[in-house]
Structures are given as structure tokens and as C-alpha cells.
Amino acid sequence: MHIHILGICGTFMGGLAVLARASGFKVTGCDANVYPPMSTQLVSQGIELIEGYAPQQTQLKPDLFVIGNAISRGNPLMEEILNRNLPYISGPQWLSEYVLRAKWVLAVAGTHGKTSTSSMLAWILEYAGLAPGFLIGGIPENFGISARLGDKSSHQPDQQESSSFFVIEADEYDTAFFDKRSKFIHYRPRTAVFNNLEFDHADIFPDLAAIQQQFHYLVRTLPGNGLIVANGLEKNLQQVLAQGCWTPIEKFGVDEGWQTKTLTEQNIEITYQDKSYGRLRWDLLGEHNRMNALAAIAAARHAGIPPDIAIAALSQFKNVKRRMEIRGIVNGITIYDDFAHHPTAIKTTLNGLRHKVGNARIIAVLEPRSNTMKMGIWKDNLAASLEIADQIYCYANHSEWDVQSALSPLGKKANVHYELVQLINSIGVIACPGDHILIMSNGGFGGIHEKLMKSLAHPQ
């Protein structure tokens, strides 16, 4: 069977392409915005990429077109598909029907931490010998790929022979232009992690209540023999569960659930209902990662993995690309790449870096690129999320609001640029050995990492 994927270079659709090819499908795809790491991953998998959405792509005569949620009416290829009444399906529905149907699905949902927690959970299962499949919105360093089909395992409890475990990052974003339900509605998990819940995706959700409704739709699909692993500190999640729940719940972050006792920043004790399950020694920083670890350990236990094995696995966890990833050190200046694009994530990431570097100077470089950021929904929260940095540079060419005014509470340490070259040159003027430059964006940011490192290596 031949499938042709529209929007193939998106994180989700690119992972889907890898799964489809591993399942024996012929896979081709197209996109209008191709950049690493997804484009590199697809090429390495032998998947043909076509630039743009020319209607002539229907001449490939695939059996089915798989439509990404970046595709809208007016797209020339989509219009040709509709006019000719050719078969099409959304990415999440295709995944549900062709990959997830016979799996024990472990889904990780929430505004923040989905990628990191999914990666931790997949690695725990891998370490325990369960060879899980997974589809993650990033590239875990332990695997080097964002998606794989997984192998059947003889160690799967309470499973039919044809089934296996599958870890998926459960995004609340809408499915497609013709299906406005959240993606995760299609996944039918047995184990569900609810990390947190804030308002986001203002381009598709009018308010927090609309997102909570989608989360409750997901709750309604969970079986009675499943498990919800929920952040006990999140009132917004508690409101969702209070609407009705038919599945057992384990909480983390609260006295009656899973907790961490911090011995040092990177040496923590894991407890559940006051019983200690061991100490985790790892390289990750920040309270958010400790909470992610608790969620992953609890979800893995539901899949039959003892907490001590999960803790041992996490001691070898290497994080995810674009999550505080060191891209290079040039003339004593360390450059990091991070996916943070929501004020909560920005503040959390900067706090983690501050714990790591102490009093060293932090230069925060931000591209407010998400749809919610472009709309200015978080403009009143942005300055506070950045204040821990010593210098702030903002690339504002995507923004539909007055970024300079929004950052004015930060005073002279805030710098706003509308040209990438000027921004890079400005950073180059002030950067000194010992500085830590944290670049934050949910996109390619114009290749700033390599350009900045080149500029720092050859100062004018």
C-alpha cells in the first residue's frame, strides 16, 4: 500500500512516516518548510520528499493521502484531492487504525513535558527489555530517532501475543482541518499520563475550558483496567477528572502519591505513599524534570516494570534533542538549544540553567514563533518569564504585537531585533568567555545556532 503524506516534515507526521515505512508501506510525502532534524531523519530512512504542494502529485496515484494538521483548505494539492474525490485520512486516525489498534498504548498528555516524559517512559521500557514502539515529538538521545514500530516481547503482562507496548506523545492540538478533535482522542490509551494543563494553542481553543473539555473526552476513552497518572498539584487537571472518571488514578507531586526528595540537584530519592523505592542519580536539572521522572516511573509500573528498574533506567537517560541541548562551545561561550516557547516553559528552562551555571552570565535568545505567541496571548507574561536571564534578545519578525513594549519591564537588558543578522551581530558584540547563550524556539529559528557559532568563532 502506498501512502502520500501532506505536511510530512512536521514532527508528528515525520514520525508517522517512519512508522508506516517500518510497517511495510510505500511512503512518499511533501511539505513547504523543510528543516532538520526531521528532514534529515526522513532522508536517512529512505523516504522521498517533494517540495511544495503541486496538484500534479496526485499523479503518484497513492492508495491513500494522509493529511497533516498544518494543511488547510486552499492548499492546491488538498483541493485537487477533494475535487477528484480521492481517499484521504488524518494522521492520528491513520495511526490509530494501522499502528495502535493492537497495542498497549501509553500516552503522555499535558501543556508541558510531553516530549521529555514520553522519552523517559520509552527508555524505561527499552531498558527493561520490552522493546516498545514510540512516536515522540522530538528525538531522544537514547534512541536517535523520534519514532519506531517496536518489537513483540514475551515479557508483556496481560497482553495477547500479537500486541506490544507503544509510547506516544499525546498532543491536544486539533487533528486536521476536517476533524477538530484533539489528536489524542484517536489513541485509545490504556495508560495515560496527565503532566499539567494550562491555556495554550489560542489559534484553535477559545479558552482553558475548551482544552479541559478535550481532556475529558480523552478520559472517557480510558478503560477501567487502565491507569491515569496525574499531576496532583494541577487544579486544572483535577477539574477535568472531577467531571467524571472511570479509571484508577495515581497522583504524583503530592503526599498521597509519587514524590521526590531532593538530596542534591541531581541526586533524588523516589517515594510512593512514603515508601522509598531508591535513589536516582542523573544529569538532568530542574523540578520539572523530577516531576517528569515521577510520571514516567508510575506509568512504567503500570506496564509491569518495578520502580527500582525504572530508576536504574533513568540513571542512563540522555535527554532529548532541543531540550537544553548543548550545540557547541566557542571561545569559552556555551550555546544551548531548547524548544521552550510558552512562558512557563521559558521560565522553567532558565531556572534549570541558572541552577547549573550559578552566577555565570546567561544570554537568553527567544523567537516567539508559536501561534499563541504570534497572537500576543502571552505578551503580559513574557517579561517575567525571562527576568532571570542577564541579557535578553528577542527575534520579533513573526510577532503581531509590540514586543518592545512587552519587554520594557526588563529595562536595558532586553533587546528586540527584526533582522536575524543584526540580532546575531548584536550578541557577538557582548558575548564573552564563560557566557551561556540559551536559544529558545519551537522552529528552526533561521539556522541561528550554526550562524551564531560561526560568528563567535570569527569575531570582527
- How would the global form be characterised? globular
- Estimate what percentage of residues fall within beta strands: 15-25%
Question: Would you tell me the overall average pLDDT?
Answer: 90
Tally of DSSP β-strands = 23
- What's the structural domain tally? 3
Question: Which regions are unreliable across 5 or more consecutive residues at pLDDT < 50?
Answer: 153-163
CATH class of the largest domain, please? Alpha Beta
What is the CATH superfamily of the largest domain?
Answer: Mur-like, catalytic domain
Q: What count of helical segments does DSSP give?
A: 15
EC number: 6.3.2.45
Cofactor: Mg(2+)
Pathway: Cell wall biogenesis; peptidoglycan recycling
Binding site for ATP: 110-116
Structural notes for this entry:
The chain has a seven-stranded mixed sheet, sandwiched between helices. The protein has a six-stranded mixed sheet with strand order 18-19-23-20-21-22, sandwiched between helices. It has a five-stranded parallel sheet with strand order 3-2-1-4-5. The chain is 32% helix and 24% strand. With 460 residues, the protein is an alpha/beta fold. About 2% of the residues have low confidence. A hairpin with a 2-residue loop joins strand 16 and strand 17. It has three domains: 90 residues, Rossmann fold, CATH 3.40.50.720; 213 residues, UDP-N-acetylmuramoyl-L-alanine:D-glutamate ligase (3-Layer(aba) Sandwich); 133 residues, Mur ligase, C-terminal domain (Protein-Tyrosine Phosphatase, Chain A). It contains 15 helices and 23 strands. The N and C termini lie far apart (56 Å).
